[in-house]
Design a protein that fits this description.
415 residues, ibrinogen binding protein from staphylococcus aureus fold, 9 helices, alpha+beta, 6-stranded antiparallel β-sheet, 20 strands, 3 domains, flat
Length: 415
């Protein structure tokens, strides 16, 4: 690359990442394979069609860090299948690298943190790593992934970007044409064809009716059977009346045949239209091996303020305020757990959870009553408990801590 070019836009398809580069007097597109057999770099003069474009984590990452930067050069590993894009951002040279290993792919990002005046390296497979020696080749970062000195091929073929996009579109169409809607239409076509085939077999009835032996065949019969076709005759009908009745049925089947043939044409036209017009590719983007950063578990975080005590093989949890009571009911308690409250008085919500089934023993009632007395500030030795299963509770909107309950039971505990 003789002169730096600006990375104006970054697109993504299921198989490629596409950098729109502006060179002096010309715009070109650098296609980078995402993995699973789609690998390497390709130069083209067209952006991917909107039909194939995707929004995914890799595209968003590259847009965040490389958009509007200036690409200085593309380095190709002399050993294995890896490349480095060297680009300038805020006056500093940064590096984004992609490595294809088997069917998998990986990347690393060597960048400058301007605010902290230092450099960092982020790897997709291992997160942030320690600063490297200044003499180390950046490609050596991939050694731990099994980077080897592969034999270079001299019979490399060049493929046009248009061909790459055409192939991806063909794959997308072949997979997306088997949608639920299309399957339903295909089933409809199968049933229509089955009806048409059955009706066409009945054409032979007409020849049979005109046969001289037909009169003897139906003379003493109340029902006429032929190839699954059945006509009932009324008592006392003459041969001519019976024959006319059969003709009426044949005439009806001829009309049905025309109707079914029209339905078949319309359904076939409908399914062809769905194949021709497709709004968006259904292919899933190929992703590099990417270690997800651990995010704090919101439920666990909220549990830190909950009061949880153990009684035998059960856990007993209660909150200090209305908000905590709701949080415990929604996030901590399960449907088969038990909920306790003071009868006709304000109190904390106490929830009892067991490893399996909660057994409501006298000891458990005394244990819960002691907690209820302490947390409610009761002065009496009698604690009137009300309880039910959590599945019988329903929160009240805009009223924190308030619940509607059913199938409740009552228990007086004397401490």
């Amino acid at each position: 690359m003789s002169k730096p070019c600006q990375i104006q836009k970054i697109y993504a398809t299921a198989f490629y990442i596409v950098f729109q580069l502006r060179t002096p007097g010309k715009t070109v597109y650098l296609y980078m394979g995402r993995g699973k057999g789609y690998e390497g770099l390709f130069i083209g003069e067209c952006a991917p069609p909107s039909f194939l474009r995707k929004q995914d984590q890799l595209r968003n990452y590259l847009r965040k860090h490389l958009s509007s930067c200036f690409l200085h050069e593309v380095l190709i590993d002399k050993k294995d299948r890896a490349i480095i894009l060297r680009f300038q951002k805020m006056g500093k040279i940064n590096n984004f690298s992609y490595f294809w290993k088997g069917r998998d792919s990986y990347f690393f990002h060597f960048f400058h943190e301007i605010s902290k005046n230092n450099t960092r390296i982020y790897t997709s497979w291992n997160g942030y790593i320690e600063k490297l020696s200044e003499t180390l080749d950046l490609f050596d970062i991939y050694d731990e992934l099994g980077r080897i000195d592969i034999e270079k091929r001299n019979d490399i073929k060049t493929i046009g970007v248009e061909q790459l996009l055409h192939d991806e579109e063909e794959i997308s169409n072949s997979r997306s044409n088997k949608t639920k809607a299309n399957k339903k239409l295909e089933k409809k076509i199968h049933l229509i064809k089955k009806d048409i085939s059955r009706i066409e077999k009945l054409k032979a009835i007409e020849a049979k009716v005109e046969d001289s032996l037909f009169e003897k065949e139906i003379q003493d019969k109340d029902v006429f059977h032929f190839e699954g076709f059945k006509v009932k005759f009324f008592h006392g009908m003459s041969f001519y009346q019976k024959r006319n009745r059969v003709y009426e049925k044949i005439k009806g089947f001829k009309k049905a045949l025309k109707i079914q043939e029209e339905r078949l044409k319309e359904t076939q036209k409908e399914i062809e239209g769905k194949k021709d017009v497709q709004k968006q590719s259904t292919l899933l983007p190929i992703m590099p091996i990417w270690k997800s950063e651990a995010k704090p578990n919101k439920t666990q975080k909220s549990n830190e303020s909950f009061n949880i005590v153990t009684f035998k093989d059960m856990k007993i949890c209660y909150g200090q305020n209305a908000k905590e009571n709701d949080s415990i009911r929604i996030k901590w308690a399960k449907k088969e757990d038990y909920w306790f409250h003071l009868e006709s008085d304000k109190s904390p919500h106490i929830f009892v959870k067991g490893d399996s089934e909660v057994i409501l023993s006298e000891e458990l009632f005394v244990f819960v009553a002691n907690i209820m007395k302490k947390e409610s500030g009761l002065k009496t030795s009698e604690v009137n408990l009300m309880y039910t299963k959590v599945k019988n509770l329903k929160g009240v909107k805009k009223s924190p801590g308030k619940v509607l309950y059913k199938k409740e039971k009552y228990r007086k505990v004397v401490l």
